[in-house]
Specification:
Layout lengths: L9 E3 L16 H8 L1 E5 L1 H9 L4 E6 L1 H6 L1 H6 L7 E3 L2 H8 L7 E6 L13 E4 L5 H13 L4 E4 L7
Parallel strand pairs: 1-4, 3-4, 6-7
Antiparallel strand pairs: 2-5, 3-5
């Protein structure tokens, strides 16, 4: 399937058991991280942020309506090495094991080192913060105040 933008090709998948979708099957964030430093981005806004970041995107899986909604971001950030899988909503739900109402997921790779951008306005360092709700609240507040980086110790909750 050719996408309306140049240099962006999509692959239509109708079989939920397709091996290319292994990272999305019964999503377990911890499992992805332990096996190779990957994470899941869910929803249009988060996938847009991932595409605009310097992080590597391994793949994207979307429904047809989300593909159209992401057209500009995909065209602006066309990466020839990123497969874009288009699936029906029912196929997506079968792949991940629950209803994905946002219709858009991506697998990204975590940075291998704690690189802090040179232009970071501020940095928040968290050590051994294990409560995901507290971590989320801190991350949202840091973003609201324009903080450029979060640095987490190895025993922190996974953001």
């Amino acid at each position: 399937m050719t996408f309306p933008a140049p240099d962006v090709t999509t692959l239509e998948i109708t079989d939920a058991n397709d091996a290319r979708l292994a990272d999305y099957r019964a999503l377990k964030e911890r499992h992805l991280n332990e096996e190779g430093g990957r994470f899941v981005a869910e929803g249009e806004r988060v996938v847009r942020r991932l595409l605009a970041s310097r992080l590597r995107v391994r793949s994207i899986v979307v429904t047809e309506p989300r593909l159209r909604a992401l057209a500009d971001a995909l065209a602006d950030h066309a990466r020839v090495d990123v497969p874009i899988f288009v699936v029906a909503p029912a196929v997506l739900d079968t792949i991940v094991g629950f209803h994905v109402h946002r219709g858009c997921l991506a697998i990204g790779e975590r940075p291998t080192s704690a690189e802090i951008p040179a232009d970071a306005r501020g940095v928040v360092v968290l050590e051994d913060l294990v409560d995901v709700d507290n971590l989320g609240a801190i991350a949202r507040n840091a973003a609201a105040f324009g903080v450029g980086a979060l640095v987490l110790s190895p025993r922190c909750a996974d953001p």
